[in-house]
Amino acid sequence: MQGTSGMFIIIIIIYIRINVIHHRDYPVVVKSVVMVVMNLLLIIIEKIMSNF
Fold it and tell me: What stretches pass through the bilayer (predicted)?
C-alpha cells in the first residue's frame, strides 16, 4: 500500500513537472523554482519510503 501511494505521488510530480516545463507562459525563474521544489519533494518522498 505504501509503495503504490508513493508511486502515485511520483507520477503526479512528474506530470506537474512536464506541464510546467512545456508551458510557455511561465518565466524561467518560476520554472527553475518549481524544478527545485519538485526535486526536493522527490528526495523527501524517497526518504519517507525508505523508512517504512
Answer: 5-22, 28-45
